[in-house]
Design a protein that fits this description.
Blueprint: E1 4-12, E2 15-22, E3 30-39, H1 42-55, H2 60-63, E4 80-88, E5 100-104, E6 118-122, E7 127-128, H3 135-140, H4 144-156, E8 171-175, H5 180-191, E9 195-200, H6 205-211, E10 215-218, H7 224-231, E11 237-240, H8 247-257, E12 263-266, E13 284-286, E14 297-299, E15 302-304, H9 308-315, H10 321-326, E16 335-338, H11 345-353, E17 361-365
Parallel strand pairs: 8-9, 8-11, 9-10, 11-12, 12-13, 16-17
Antiparallel strand pairs: 1-2, 3-4, 3-6, 3-17, 4-5, 5-7, 14-15
Helix pairs in contact: 1-11, 4-5, 7-8
InterPro entries: ADH-like_C (IPR013149), ADH-like_N (IPR013154), ER (IPR020843), GroES-like_sf (IPR011032), NAD(P)-bd_dom_sf (IPR036291), Trans-enoyl_RdTase-like (IPR047122)
Protein name: GroES-like protein
Pfam family, one: ADH_zinc_N
């Protein structure tokens, strides 16, 4: 194996370059993974988007008060990966060399974690990809989408899990059912005994119902909150995968008009003044997946301490994911393959940024 490899490095604000960097060596409790496929997430292009605005002299906090993303120059971009274990660090026993594994790292935060030919990862935060999934499907299921669902539903809302499903078939709303997180959310809710209801564009209704959505509502319908509340008067919980504009407010109103009390988990902080009147009965609380890595990190003006609780909880899910995917209980997002590998990553980022991606996942072979 060569001592150098290719990695997607942030070289200037809003720009990346495929550069030669040293192959990392795993420390105790870590593994080195030879990457076979990667997947693109909105969080990946957001890192560069905000750098571009900064370069133009704008304030990120002014333009995007709920998004404090910033990829410093020299950091490596990218989160989701699938590959083969190449080397074990001291003390690693849960995987062996040659195992197919998947996971995610904190791309865009610092040098050494992101899309590269080899990725160094915490051994306790990878899961073994079953043989019925291709490399690209493994990347599509690697981390950000399903792990965000796990964190939101089971860590934050304390819902019943697939291992011990509820018998009540309680409704749970997903705002943005055709997002990557939404697609996984539908399946995890169904596997956990809940009744998934979603908002989406009408073109995706059939696909979402095939995954298990009991009802689909148009997100553009001005009466969507009251219609959901009327159809599901016991609604108490929601996950807002969009968290922009009035999406959170509308999800909160649906619960308020239904059960009257509950909680909405968001993927971004929403400071809409209208939410204050519901703060006591239907609070909207953000969740941030990077906390499961158990490492302190900082975004502009905001420090996030290490969360050993989140990390330990996610570690407990790693042995469960292979069986969920092997059995077909959870299916990977439909993949949209792009050619060119790491050298052509900008095309995939631009595609996701354009909003063209819908009910599918942009993936690359490496």
């Amino acid at each position: 194996m060569s001592n150098t490899m290719k990695a997607v490095v942030v070289t200037a604000r809003g720009k990346t370059e495929l550069k030669d960097v040293p192959v990392p060596s795993p420390s105790a409790g870590e593994i080195l993974v030879q990457t076979r496929a990667i997947a693109v997430n909105p969080t990946d292009y957001n890192e560069l988007l905000f750098l571009t605005f900064l370069r133009a002299g704008h304030s990120v906090l002014t333009l995007f008060p709920s998004r404090d993303f910033l990829a410093p120059e020299g950091s490596w971009l990218g989160c989701d990966y699938m590959g083969v274990v190449s080397k074990l660090g001291e003390g690693v026993t849960n995987v062996k060399e040659g195992d197919r594994v998947a996971g995610f790292v904190h791309g865009g935060a610092w040098e050494g974690e992101g899309w590269a030919e080899y990725i160094k990862a915490q051994a306790s935060l990878v899961w073994k990809v079953p043989d019925n999934l291709s490399d690209e499907e493994g990347a599509a299921a690697a981390g950000v989408g399903p792990w965000t669902v796990i964190q939101a539903f089971y860590f934050r809302l304390k819902l019943a899990t697939p291992a011990n499903p509820t018998k009540e078939a309680e409704p749970v709303l997903i705002w943005g059912g055709s997002t990557s997180t939404g697609l996984y959310g539908i399946q995890f809710l169904k596997a956990s005994g809940y009744t998934p209801i979603v908002t989406a564009s009408e073109k995706n209704f059939d696909k979402l119902k095939q995954l298990g959505a009991a009802a689909c509502y148009s997100y553009s319908d001005p009466d969507v909150a009251s219609k959901i509340a009327k159809d599901y008067p016991k609604l108490r919980y929601a996950l807002d995968t969009i968290s922009e504009g009035k999406t959170t407010v509308t999800a909160v109103k649906a619960i308020s008009q239904a059960a009257g009390k509950g909680k909405v988990i968001t993927l971004l902080t929403n400071k809409d003044e209208e939410l204050k009147q519901f703060a006591d009965s239907v609070p909207a609380e953000p969740t941030l997946l990077y906390t499961v890595l158990g490492v302190e990190f900082e975004w502009p003006g905001v420090k996030f301490p290490a969360s050993p609780e989140d990390k330990a909880a996610m570690e407990g899910w790693m042995p469960l994911l292979p069986d969920l995917f092997k059995s077909g209980t959870i299916k990977p997002n439909p993949i949209l393959p792009f050619d060119g590998g790491l050298a052509n990553i900008t095309e995939g980022l631009d595609y996701v940024k354009s909003g063209k991606q819908s009910a599918q996942k942009v993936v690359y072979k490496v």
